[in-house]
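Researcher: Checking consistency across runs. Here is Protein GrpE again:
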Amino acid sequence: MKLVTNERDILEEEVKDETQQSELESANEAAQSDESSSLHNEADDLAVALEKVKEQEAAIEEKENKLLRLQADFDNYRRRARLDMEAAQKYRAQNLVSDILPALDNFERALKVEAQDDQMNSILQGMEMVYRQLVEALKQEGVEVIESVGQPFDPHLHQAVMQVEDSNYEANTVIEEFQKGYKLKDRIIRPSMVKVNQ
């Protein structure tokens, strides 16, 4: 009977060992499954994190491009403002010159009148002094008379009001000036009114 007991003990030991072995294998499988699941979760988390990084990089790049465009727009605005200010300074007298030119024309017409006595002569001399002061003040501002008579006709500088045929002049040449033209620095204030040879 002792032998049977021993066999039973051995069997029980074997069953116990098998059970333990089975439990160990189950535990290993569970651990491997957890590890695999954990690795899978980490991979998913990493993919999500990479996606967020790409989105952030794209957003940063878009903001940088926007910033560069704004900087360029601001630089263009500053340049335009500076050019406008320079032009305004350069041509600040344009409106005043335009308003004074008809008075200058009237002075020139008045100075062509023949003086018949000393009183009229002294009035003309006074008018001529005022006329010269006006012309000098305009020159200091950069106003110049446009040369016309004997010059080739230029539609930017001259306004043709008459055309004639005169063999003494070359074709397309200004023969006579009816009204002086003026320019302020490089801008035409008023073109000359002229007669042109065909």
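Researcher: Does this match what you'd expect to see?
Model: One thing to look at in this run: The beta strands are 143-146, 158-164, 174-179, 181-184, 187-190, 192-197.
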